[in-house]
Amino acid sequence: MAADGDQSDYFVREIEKNDGFTLKVNQCYMGDVGCVVWDAAIVLAKYLETKQFYEPSTGMNLWADRRVVELGAGTGAAGLMAATLGAQVTVTDLEDLQTLMRVNIKDNQKLISSGSITAKVLKWGEDVSDFLPPPHYVLMADCIYYEQSIAPLVETLKLLAGPETCIICCYEQRTEGVNPEVERKFFKLLEQNFSCEEIPSSKQDPEFNSPDIHILHIRRKV
């Protein structure tokens, strides 16, 4: 991929916001799993707009000035949505996805007025001091699929999440191959330090939800 993000390398997936504006999220024709907008990222992005967080008619906005870190952000779709709602967002992924995230930030900058968004490298299991104090929210869309990354991911959550942090994890439940075992290992490791609450579909976006895509609120055990 061209370092400056040559347009011919990308195709766009649009996510329409409730205010009528549209996020335009570039994806790569070539590349690994981080280069496309997965359905779970769209379900998560639309969940951030639901009225428990954001109700323009009453002026209620839980995202305003909140510090948000998205892990394994890939295209950065969920983080971009949070930024348009007023959050101060850092989208994180490995080095080779920084160009894509930066292209998407640039292309959607006009939708971000009170919020902000920056892209940074974060390798799971490594130092998180750049991202502290603990953010108010950690976003994760489809990060549970790769067995070798389970322990480093949980380690990062332990280092990053404070007592007030809400981790919003959205993932597509996959029944083939090693996926069920990877999920089981993730939750087993997670529950040593965290508790999970599943969000019912009635609290998700009425259009963008699916029986096999789960949204969890994960918090540190006290």
TrEMBL record:
Listed GO MF terms: methyltransferase activity
InterPro entries assigned: Methyltransf_16, SAM-dependent_MTases_sf
One GO term of the biological process aspect: methylation
Keyword S-adenosyl-L-methionine attached: yes
Any one cellular-component term (Gene Ontology): cytosol
Domain of life, per lineage: Eukaryota
The name this protein goes by in its record: Protein-lysine methyltransferase METTL21D
Entries under Pfam families matching the protein: Methyltransf_16
UniProt source species: Scomber scombrus (Atlantic mackerel)
Key words, A-Z: Methyltransferase, S-adenosyl-L-methionine, Transferase
Gene3D superfamilies referenced in this protein's UniProt entry, alphabetically: Vaccinia Virus protein VP39
UniProt-listed PANTHER family: HEPATOCELLULAR CARCINOMA-ASSOCIATED ANTIGEN, PROTEIN N-LYSINE METHYLTRANSFERASE METTL21D
